[in-house]
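re: ur question from yesterday

yeah so i grabbed the chain u mentioned. its 203 aa long if i counted rite. heres the sequnce exactly as i have it in my notes:
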Amino acid sequence: MGDFSGLAEVEGFLQMFLALYVGGMLIRNANSRVQIWIGAITVVLIDKVLSAIVDLSKVWVGLEDAEYVEGLPQSILAIEGIGLGVDVLISGILFGAIPAMWLIPALYGKIEPLLGLRPRVPGERIPGSVQHVGWFVVVALLLSIASFFFAFLEAWDLSVGAVDTELLDQYGPGFLWVSVGVIAVMLVVAILLFRRSQKNRKR
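ran it thru and got these structure tokens back, copy pasting raw so excuse formatting
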């Protein structure tokens, strides 16, 4: 809504990419509810743990020249821990694993052709999966470090590519419906294009 943090937003993209990749690799059988639960919770754990480390690091850097308040580090750690638990419960289980437990088996074999992909076969090596664990660990660490760097751009007041038009302050909360309208238009266009492509295939 006119507020974009520029390169600082890359932090979230890198963390979520890493989390989704690891979670997706854990689901070898799309009909296994146990693997779906593990994958869904792992996605949230990786994303939120990395975010918590970034937040704690920001506080540590911000307070390095200030006097510590007694019990402040423990309080921040407790707040981050409680937030992580709530995120796992809400995002990982309530709105993650439980819906996915029915959605993934129901959509398995139906949604892949729409994306131009072949359905995943249980027991078969997943295309794009890593062959050497060591290299994957190295790449994962590099992505984590890169996400920390982009997160600290905002902490260092380096707003590279940031946009702040204050549209919400100017037009009020009702301006949020503009984004809803744009999403609705894009959805309608996508449905029309999909139906058109289906008709062309039948011909």
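noticed a couple things. The CA atoms of residues 168 and 175 lie 6 Å apart. also The chain has six helices and two strands.
anyway ttyl
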